[in-house]
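Quarterly update, task 2.4: 6-O-phosphono-beta-D-fructofuranose-bound model.
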Amino acid sequence: MKKIAVFTSGGDAPGMNACIRGVVRTAIYNNVEVMGIMRGYNGMIEGDIIPLTSRSLSNTIQRGGTILKTARSADFMTYEGRKRAYENLVENAIEGIICIGGNGTFTGAKQFYDEFGIPSIGAPGTIDNDLYGTDFTIGFDTAINTAVEAIDKIRDTADSHDRVFFIEVMGRHAGFIALACGIAGGAEVILVPEIKNDWHKLTDYFSGSNKSKKAFSIIVVAEGDEEGGAYKTVERLKKQIPDFDARVSILGHIQRGGSPTAYDRVLASRLGNAAVEALLRGETNKMAGLMNNKVVLTSYDDAINKNKPLNSELIRLVDVFNV
Ligand code: F6P
C-alpha cells in the first residue's frame, strides 16, 4: 500500500489522539502516505479528507477528544452514502483505512469492505470497554478515573450529611464503567445492565429495620440498568420505602473528556501501531486489541457479536465488602 487513511467515529474517547498519532507515525515510518478523514464516515462521504504529516500530531498525545472530530453517521447506513464514500477514497488514491471507534464503526467498515473491497483494521476507541477481543478499550481507564474522582468528592458530602447518593455513570448497554467505578469508589451497591436489579435486597438494605445500615451510602448505577438510570431507580425505591431519601448525581459527558491517563496513551499508541502494521501485512476486517498485555487481532464479527462478560470476581466482591 502507498496511501492509507485514518478516522475516528462514534463517541469520542480520551486517547483517540494518541492512537491517531500511533497510526500516522507508523505509516510514515513505513514510507506510506497517510490522510485524515474528518468527522468519521460523514467526512468520508463529503470528501473532507486532509493530508497528515509526522508533525500534524505534535503536542496531541495528552489531549482528550479527537483532532479529526467524530460523528455517528446516518448517511453511511445507506448504500448511496457508502458509494459516495468509496468514490472519495478512490479519488484520493486511498487503499486502506484505519478506523478508531466501537461497534457501529466496525459494523460500517465490514459492510464497506463487502461492498467495495476497501480493507480496514480497527482500533477500539470507546469509554464503554464493551468490545470482545481486548481487555481494555481506549478511553476506559481515563473515564473510570474521572468518574472515581467525582465519586470521591460526592462521598465527602454523603459523609458530612449522612446521605444516600445514587451516582449514574455512562454505559447504555454495558456495566464495565459502573463496576470498576463502584469497586474503586467503595459503592455499597452497583447496578448494571447485564444483571437484573435485586429489588428485595435494595429495599431491605434501605428499610428502617436494617440495623447494619451504614450512615451514608454510595450506589453506582449504569445509565442502562434495568430501571433506566439513577432517577428512575430512586423513584421506584421511594414508592416502596415511605421514608426513603436519596440524592441523585448524573456524571454524564464529563466521563468522555479530559487528558488521557498514561495507561490509555500507551494502549492507544500500541494499538495504532499494530493496526497499521496489520493493514500493511494484508489483513482486513479485524480489530487490534490487547489481551494479557499482548497485541492480538480479532475479527470484526467476533469483536462486535461475541459477549464480553463482566468480571465475575469483581461482582462477587461488592457483596463481600458490604459486610
Ligand atoms: O458509547 C459511549 C457512550 O459514552 C455511552 O456510554 C453513552 O450511552 C453514549 O456514548 C452517549 O452518547 P452521546 O454522546 O451520543 O449521547
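Highlight for this quarter: The domain at 3-139+260-305 is CATH 3.40.50.450 (Rossmann fold).
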